[in-house]
Batch of 4 targets.
Target 1
Amino acid sequence: MAPTRRALVLAAGLVPVGALPAFFGGALWTVWAGAGLALLLGGALDRALALPPRRLRAAVTVPDALFIGESDPCAVELGAPGRRRPTTVEALLDLSPDLSPAPARTVEVRGVGRTEFRLEPRRRGTARVGALWLRWRGPLGLVELRRRDAVDRPVSVLPNVRAVRRTALRFRSEREFRLGLKVERYLGDGSEFDALHEYAPGWDPRALDWKASARHRKLLVQEFRAERNHQVVVAIDTGHRMSEPIEGLPRLDHAVNAALQLVWCTLKSGDRVGFYAFDARPGAWLPPEAGVRAFGRVQRATAALAYGTAETNFTLGLLELTRSLRRRALVVLFTDFVDVAAADLMLENVGRLARRHRVLFVTLRDPELAALAGAEPRSLLDLHRAVVAADLEREREVVLARLRRLGISIVDAAPAAFAPRLVQRYLEIKRRELVG
């Protein structure tokens, strides 16, 4: 129990009242004593009328798991059985640093009251809901009662598979997604010849087979189908640069979320998927595999990725990946770089990898850096920031241009468009048969 601000203000008002007997006569001390006694009695009455802590029931429902990049509700139910007078209770959750702070909630308890906190994880791993703090006042507003209820519930923070479900719904009916999922026939697309079909208006004239048309004395077009069973390897750099946050999440978690969406689409389209992680040393390696079981393996491997603190060794990491691959594959490389000087060794090793495999280079663009470069400077410090940001943007384009000259496909997008752009680029590479 503690006095409220109202009680402290009233108590402070007794100080000048206590000085009255010194100036206007000692008989006035009774006024000061009476005011102080009234304040004490008011506090005692307020405490007696307030909701007793033992009467307040609290229940916290913590979700079993959270997904990085999303928020989930944590329900708090408060009740005071048998109490008719409503009481306003302020509730606050004590959360571990891996969770964003949740603002306090106010619940009016008359019988049973309920509210929800949104739990938003900042990093993968295990977060914890430590305790529930409750605070309420008496009806006169003079005393404040507080209570701490221990919760101590661990919560697993996992890669975001909900985005995979949204991707599934988005691409379910699109033609590009069905490429390779089953035997789909498209005029002029794919690399495997399937059949001849009589020409109809609106079809691509480039698919006409003139020799067959001459033999049958009618226009015939060739039907192809997309090749399946390509090897796709998702390679994620887990070095210290990937631990830096963008829009509240580490780059590594943005990469993991996008990679899981890509893996789901890749498996559904009939290709085989492998996984590889590296930083200063080679990390997890899963050979390419097909089927739903492969998605579970990749999901568990990405959930176990640690946030690295070491500099990435591209020479050792990509050399080990090259040794592990027995046949040509599409390597989807998630990484990041600062400037041209820091990217030289990366460019050399990515170029060496691209001689044997098709490489899709995936990097995350920082919207804040672009905003700083394009903002109107209002001070000398703003001008310095804009110049540095513009230089970094320019050097970034130089590195990406060098990658394109090496024949490497690139996905360079902000977090909002990161995963959709990646899936679209993969479908384009598959449609154009650029893997084999």
Target 2
Amino acid sequence: MVSFALCAWLLVGVDVKIGVVYRTVDDKPVMMDVYTPEKPVLRPTPVVVMIHGGAWMSGSRTDMTSLALELTNRGVAVANIDYRLAPKHKWPAMIQDCQEAVLFVKRKASEYGFDPDRVGAVGGSAGAHLSLLLGSTDIGQFATSPRAGGGPDARVSAVVNLFGPVDLTQDFDKSTANFVALQVIGKKYEEATEEAKAFSPINYLSAASAPTYTIQGKADTLVPAMQAQRLDEALSKLGVSHEIVVIEGMGHGVSSKDPVVDAKIKTELGKALDWLVARLTK
């Protein structure tokens, strides 16, 4: 699980709605917390869908609360979401929920004061993987509910990728990959070649993909730094605007035992959020 605790902003100047149900699956609600600044950078307000990590098997939206408040403090709204988890729910349940969350904030834009044309995504680890998919795919590619009557699509227009898996077919420790594949996909890793390709954001990238800002730890042993390099190379070839920041001494997370590294991570996270706000307010 990846928990973000940059700082604890007081809930001053922020309207918070906890436990908003954005979809119901098999009579079970799937929820988000909605943070809206009282003084947004624009009206209607840009909104960011925030997605927690946890290897698609654990974690919750509360892991991202501090990061959500960091963004709200910058004048944009945040939909901090839960999604269905493995092993009970197999892929593609996770991305289906994330896409429905995007559709929810777009459909409810007038009610919440959001701008449906200014929606971004931020995710950490598995949540970053899902955010990358939101920047390059639409609902039909994962067989979720069809879009009715020419309504909004499920794409976002800017992505912050915090050490997310990009190409699940290579670079990963085989024992870890096998465990995750069994839990999330339902097959052994060596038997899930096609599923791993379909699970990989790199295979959905196009020239129309959302601009992306990536932060990756050089010392990350769970999601190797090579993953960020592969994303960099792919987006460069496609001509998609992007930034890649690789931090020496950073592992898989936003904190370490080295205060110098921690200070660098905090600085770069701040830059990433500033970049996202700038993208959503262009």
Target 3
Amino acid sequence: MTPREQAVAARAAAQTLRGLSTAARARLLRRVASTLEAEASTILAANEQDIRRGAATLSDALMARLRLSPRKLESLADGIRDLSEMEEPIGRILRKTELAPNLTLQQVTSPLGVLLVIFESRPDALPQVASLALKSGNGLILKGGREAAETNRVLHELIAGALRPDVSPHAIGLVQTREEVGDLLALDDVIDLVIPRGSNAMVRQIQQNTRIPVLGHADGICHVYIDAAADPSMALEIALDAKTDYPAACNAMETLLVHRDFEGLEGVLEGLRSAGVTLHQGPETDFRTEYGDLACSVRVVAGLEEAIAHIHAFGSGHTDAIITADRALAQAFLDRVDSACVFHNASTRFADGYRFGLGAEVGISTSRIHARGPVGVDGLLTTRWQLFGSGDTAGPFSSGERTFTHRPQD
């Protein structure tokens, strides 16, 4: 199939998908989850091929993102089952208004249409994104990184196969080449949203080469600010988790900001060093670096104002956290730091669709239009207006014969 044919087929299959009952789509998602578990050995064997091929050329951070495990597959299956049990997202009434007697308007949720999701390195993104598209009634075309080509191929075949007989497997498409992506980016009449998951360079390149709306984040430069009133043991524990739990993740801490009067500074820095973290300090430090590894920048600041100014100057609007016992100060931080996710006394690693209870995420958005932060099912929906009349025409309202009531309805 050509890219256009693939996109058109995805749109047609999505029409069938959104017409299924809630129970039918839940069964479909459970079937996908069971397939991942039943075919775990096949998936892991394909992943091992990608691991062997990439061992000589990929960084440790990319290898960490590439590798799947039985536990990760179990977690993916659990997340998909959780998603299957969530409330019906399509056709949810957001607003209902009586325009006039016997003339009622309602605003309801609706799928966006066809999504193009481009991701690098992480094959676990494929089942996450596919399950979100199925739950939200959207068609989907995926493009994964070539370093995970074999894993992505197997995952796609298994998931697409699990859609039968309820929905055409074309509801979820997979492309392999950059040329195909270029062709897809030109299809603004068929594809409704592009979601890139990858490097800053990749996101910007996509934004510059399509008229389709793009939803995504560029860098994941996340900060942890330790206030003077922070508990030293809590500060160390959160800083360690934010940096070392999964250094390659976009929600890992990249810059540690510390109040100059915080008494536990040396303990926190020594704890990070002992965990293998390289600390970058001093006037030559590039605070716009996303390390994606066991490394981070460190800066001592005079207080909250300087910390917030630093975050707004060097951050990427992803996730930032404050550690302090001062609740008023914490609230000021949460109110004023203009990031998608802002936390108090918690690790930045909580910025995740599954951990937020969204079931999964299609990505993290740092844009300020449409969805922001972890994007789950709700971020893949738009709205439509439905009007229920009884032979009504606009003329009587124009002439004054009838008047609008605009009365909210339950």
Target 4
Amino acid sequence: MAHAKEVIAVPDVAPNLDRYRKDRAFRYEDFAKREKNVNISPFRAQDFSWHKHGYSLLDRLYPNIGGLLDTKFNAIVSLTYKTMGDETDVDTTTFRLATWNYIHLIFGIFHDDYRYDEVNQLLYRGYKEYIKTVSCYPEKVTQLDYLNFLDLKHSEKVHINLLILEARMQAELLYFSRTLSLYMK
């Protein structure tokens, strides 16, 4: 039996977020579709990883922040209700890792120890589109997008959104800490 989806009335007013940006030309550029003449190499996680480099660099700059962030990332990745919609006693570990690694992939971070064929096996196209919209264009996410991306309970959808936001934050921190470590040399 399908769950009835409650629609909450939300005003159809798109806020003008441009006023909060200093550089109006600054936008997400699709890593896979960037111009070929742009000299940006892929970010290989084995060359600069969160656990070996980012965590410790941030801890040196601001004591204990690396540990706090790592605890937060681990809590989100390991959180599970062992459910998926109406299914119970489900191990969602591979689904959560596929989601996390797909978000890193969107931002050009490759994990050599991860089998990316799992992403295409576990994450259907509509879900990947939702992930990309939330992580790259959050101002475009609608209530309808949220309600329709997967047939899950609201608590599970909230968890997925937290997973998306935390994976994006970790990706941003990886780029920041790698750049900072190169600058400090």
